[in-house]
Amino acid sequence: MTGLPGLAWRQLRANLAVPLALAVLVLLVAFVVTAWPRVLADVDDRQVAYETDGVSVLRRDVIGVQLGQQPGLPAAPEPGTTGLEPDVEASLGGLLAGLEELRAAQPEPLRGILGEPRATVETPEVDIRPVEGGEIGRPRVSFKSDPYLTDHVELVDGAWPAEPPTADPFAARTPEGMTLTEEELAALQAEADALHARPVQVALSVDAAEVLQWDVGKEREAPGSERTLLLTGTFAPLDPDEDYWGHNPRSAAPYVVDDLNFGTSASAAAYVHPAWDLAPPLPMPMAEPSVRMWFGVDGGALTADAVPEALAQLRGFTAANQPLGESASAEPLSQRFGSELPEVLTRILAQQSVTSTVLAVVAAGPLGVTLAVFLLGARLLVSRCRSSLALLRARGGSGVQLRTMMAAEGLALALPAAAAGAALAIALVPGRTSTGDLALAGGVALVPAALLALATSPRGLREARADLGTSRARLRWVGEVVVLALAAVGVVLLGQRGIQPGDGDTDPLLAAVPLLLALATCVVVMRAYPWPVRALQGALGRRRGVTAFLGAARAVREPAGGLVPAVALVVGVSVALFSAVLGSTVSEGVQGTAWTAVGADLRLSGPVFDAETVGRITGVEGVAAAATVADAGTIGVTAGGQTHRVELVALDPEAFRAVQADAVGIDELPTGLGPVTGDRLPAVLSTSLGAGPGADGVSASIGGSTPLDVVGVMEDVAGAGAAADFVVVDHATAEELTGQVLRPRVLLLAVEAGADPGQVLERVRAIEPDALAENPSADAQNFLASPMAGGMSAALGTAVVLSVLLVLVAVVLTQLMGAPQRARLLAVLRTLGLHRRQGQGIVAWELAPLAVVSVVAGAALGIAVPWVMLGAMDVTALTGGDRQPDLVLDPLVLAAVLGGLLLVAAVAVGVSTMMSRRADLATQLRTGEG
Questions:
Q1: Alpha-carbon distance 131 to 147, whole Å?
Q2: How far apart are CA 412 and CA 416, in angstroms?
Q3: Do residues 674 and 653 lie in contact, with contact meaning Cβ atoms separated by under 8 Å?
Q4: What is the rounded CA–CA span in Å between residue 236 and residue 255?
Q5: What are the tens digits of pLDDT across the range 262-301?
Q6: Any residues with CB less than 8 A from the CB of 852 and at least 6 apart, and which?
Q7: Alpha-carbon distances, residue 41 vs 38, 44, 46, 609, 802 (angstroms)
Q8: Which range (58-67, 116-125, 147-156, 590-599) has the least confidence?
């Protein structure tokens, strides 16, 4: 084979190891750049489903409520439109058909996430006569109609309620024009009265019937009505945790309230046949019923890339009345819907913005190091081919021909490898792949060809000392000044704009500044590191021994690889440190958020925690301390000449501090809070009131106008669950001033050292099973288990591993590039009496100064970048709180990452020194003579 293809093929076979290494690297990079977007898309999609499914149906679903029968329901549709029974379709069919038409009229993706419409009709509650001697002093029921109830329950006992008596005896017995006698009229009237006087048939859940002490087949009276209620059957939910029951409270189970003043009351939904017209006077005199309609939201049907459009469509949908059809009198009907889903989608967009920006920064580092490694590989391959290329040049080969030959060699290597890497990523990694993602893999295939052509310079085919060249000095100065200026401008712009919330898109400025800072750091390293090395060289020149002196001299004259390995080292180290620091910051932020919300090892809320209950709980094994928090209502606080309505929080300061003694990342309760001192009441105010410690003229309406001694201010009181505006006072003093016994509904518990909070909680639940229990450690773990947090953690960990591996490859390639010149130098020195170990020391000295300086600079950059990002981007979406986390520098994590990087660099240098032993002395001397 002749011509350029033949020469390229022979050239490839002659230096097979380096091309194969480049091909493997291309395959791996193509795999990563194809898999990375797929992984992110999959994580984002799962995060959307996680966030939407994590909120209650009452917040997530799109709901409309019509109070009373005005403006009324749509007219019945054509028979058979809804698939319901004819009499049911005549009652609610028009509404359900109108809702379905409304859903079908919506654009995608909104139409796809709105589930099938559902509607129920319910009357206000009415009292029924209690059972004599029963536990429930005030039983109440509301009448409810739902055509789809039987899809969610199973009949346990009895039968379903019968259809309502809708037939009118007068209309049925008196054809048009027919005249009735008085006896016939009286008989029809008696028949109508008897028909409408029959008991109203209802069905209850098994639990409701048990609590109300109502047996199937029994009638119950409703005071104030001539009609009675007949329980015809009981049912049980097929799935008690189904979203359906969120829209139907008091249906699966009754709502029971224990009140010390009014006794025990219980209310439940009593279902009638869905054909009932619940408007007065049926089934009994009462206020107008309400109609509840909703679209269930399927979060799994919404992909992450469709969130912005879905958010805009949903806001438009809920901002205006939506048409439902026409009434029986042809009057157009409409309904206003509401949902808190826009808030959830807005939070998802903020999460996407933060994660995409952070991951863009994380990905840019390894990609930059990869580009540097590719360039080192291309230069290494060209250097191995220098003699052949020089011969071709001497025999008339043009620079274009030489570049074309090397580019063709690069394409022959990279195209199959990139295709294989992309195919493996699509086959092995779940997610979505767009055309742009495949374009990245195609771009990777072109990089080796472009770099090989760029490195094949006809002027560079002759050997020359790198430290004597001056032709590119001016261009280098210009480039360095531009890089430093761009980095400074970027940092200034970020500082001026302040912290910005995410809007779903990657922040281009924030993503670019870390890369500019990395390049600026590399410029500083390359300009600064020769000075201490020269000083070291001068000091070593006055000592015996040639190893350190000659190594330092070569480190100044020919820094191993120049700027390229410096970029690889600095960026690789900075990405590893950045990932570790950001991971620690986010983890601590999540922990701090959980502790701020809970306030102690365990938090119980809900029932009243009286002294007896607190005493029993304090005696539980593993409980070290307990403190109650009472909401004493809303009071007026005058501060700075203005009066604010705030929440009065009463607690025992000493017990509260004892509970929070070992709490993590929360603001401590200021000292000085306690009983009245002098004529003023010590108090802690929320920062929103604008009154600092020691402020004069602050008073509160507690038992009259009470002057306050402001002993401190806090943004929030961890665990208290207070509103945004609050004032905290001593519990006993608050009771004395208000003249009432405060009933705390929050109990904070500290767990003994070494005890498991989960096990302690199980023992506490045996005493108070109905309280809502919160554990900060469990809450933090649940948040970190989300797809977003898990994906971020995996991405940061992957970035650390890739950075370390790329640093290793960059160091090895750098040493291989200088291997021929180094081998000839060592051959000459060995003929002059240099020992083999001394030669290995010279090899180590070539890279050691640059490696040490680059690692130090990269470590500083790895800490500076997250500090810059925290000052310019709202990362609370990653921590679940509303307070920007502080930068966390975990000494153990930093030491582990830096130690690993230094170890990798040392291993790479060691490998290079070992390879230097393989050089044949006679061969190198003959090559040097030629």
A1: 31
A2: 7
A3: yes
A4: 16
A5: 568 889 999 998 887 765 545 555 567 889 999 999 888 8
A6: none
A7: 5, 5, 9, 47, 21
A8: 590-599
Closest CA to 517 of 886, 42, 869, 139: 869
Residues 684 and 713 sit within 8 Å (Cβ to Cβ) = yes
Please state, in angstroms and rounded to a whole number, the distance separating the CA atoms of residues 592 and 572.
Answer: 30
Q: For residue range 763-775, what is the model confidence (pLDDT) as tens digits?
A: 888 888 878 888 8
- Give percent helix, percent strand, percent coil of the chain, each to the nearest 5: 55, 15, 30
Distance CA 557, CA 537 (A): 11
Nearest to 624 by CA among 749, 746, 720: 749
What stretch of H or E contains 837? helix 836-870
For residue 235, give the amino acid letter: F
Q: Please enumerate in sequence order all residues whose Cβ is within 8 A of that of 864, keeping only pairs 6 or more positions apart, or say none.
A: 517
Q: What separation in angstroms does the CA of 15 have from each of 2, 10, 385, 409, 921?
A: 19, 9, 8, 12, 21
Is the per-residue pLDDT at 470 higher than 50?
no
CA distance 762 to 748: 15
CB-neighbour burial class of residue 615 (10 A; exposed 0-12, middle 13-18, buried 19+): exposed
Helix and strand counts by DSSP (H, E) for the chain:
30, 22
C-alpha of 698 from chain center: 42
Q: How far apart are CA 89 and CA 73, in angstroms?
A: 12
Place of tokens 């000052």: 871
Question: Taking the mean position of all CA atoms in its chain, how far away is CA 864?
Answer: 24
Q: Measured between alpha carbons, how far apart are the two ends of the chain, in Å?
A: 30
Instruction: Please state, in angstroms and rounded to a whole number, the distance separating the CA atoms of residues 778 and 591.
Output: 10
Examine the pLDDT at 539 and tell me if it is beyond 80: no
Core vs surface per residue 264-274: b (16+ CB within 10 A) or e: bbbbbbbbbbb
